[in-house]
Specification:
The protein has about 170 residues and is an alpha/beta fold. It has one domain: Ribonuclease H-like superfamily/Ribonuclease H (Nucleotidyltransferase, domain 5, 2-Layer Sandwich). The chain is built from six helices and five strands. It has a five-stranded mixed beta sheet, with helices on both faces. Strand 1 (about 10-20) and strand 2 (about 25-35) form a beta hairpin. The chain is globular. Mean pLDDT is about 90; it is low at about 165-174.
Length: about 170
């Protein structure tokens, strides 16, 4: 992805997983983000690192829109037969970061950093439902309310759905 630059919505999506700290344990968050608009297309939260939550997020995203390319790291979730087959069935080109190329998915990593510093690190979540609500409200604000410098201070939803769309998403996100 070094030489590629997203030039329209649904050109390139990034997908990645991060951990979310809770009191005494962790949860895991997978996010699919449109690189052009910075719109969070889909996300799922899980108490385990089983592959199914990644597939759920991907199926949810592909039910309404399809990227030309999806980029991930080379983790086992993204190299599994189920994941690759789902992308092939939907005509999506697969791109994986090369060894030592963690910056290829920098847009997704930046979202994770913002989420953690603005929402996660300042609270002590005790229940999965609390984490879910916190992430859902953050994603809604991130997509529909918050202007982004990289977008000329526009909102991701405005760019993703186009200027004529309302700021309400037709997607059932999360």
């Amino acid at each position: 992805m070094r030489t590629f630059k997203a030039d329209r919505p649904d050109h390139i999506w990034g997908i990645d997983i991060t951990y979310i700290r809770m009191k005494g344990r962790f949860m895991y968050l997978v996010v699919i983000i449109d690189w052009y608009s910075r719109f969070i297309v889909s996300w799922e939260l899980s108490q385990t690192l089983e592959r199914s939550f990644v597939l759920r997020a991907l199926k949810k995203a592909l039910a309404t829109r399809k990227p030309e390319i999806i980029n991930s790291d080379q983790g086992s979730h993204f190299t599994s037969c189920d994941y690759i087959q789902l992308l092939k069935e939907n005509g999506v080109k697969i791109s994986m970061d090369g060894k030592g190329r963690a910056t290829d998915n920098a847009i997704t990593k930046r979202f994770f950093r913002s989420l953690k510093w603005e929402k996660i690190y300042y609270e002590e979540y005790r229940k999965p439902q609390e984490v879910y609500r916190a992430i859902r409200s953050y994603v809604d604000e991130y997509n529909f309310v918050r202007p982004h410098q990289a977008l000329g201070y526009d909102k991701p939803a405005t760019i993703y759905f186009g200027q004529t769309q309302s700021a309400k998403s037709p997607l059932n996100i999360a």
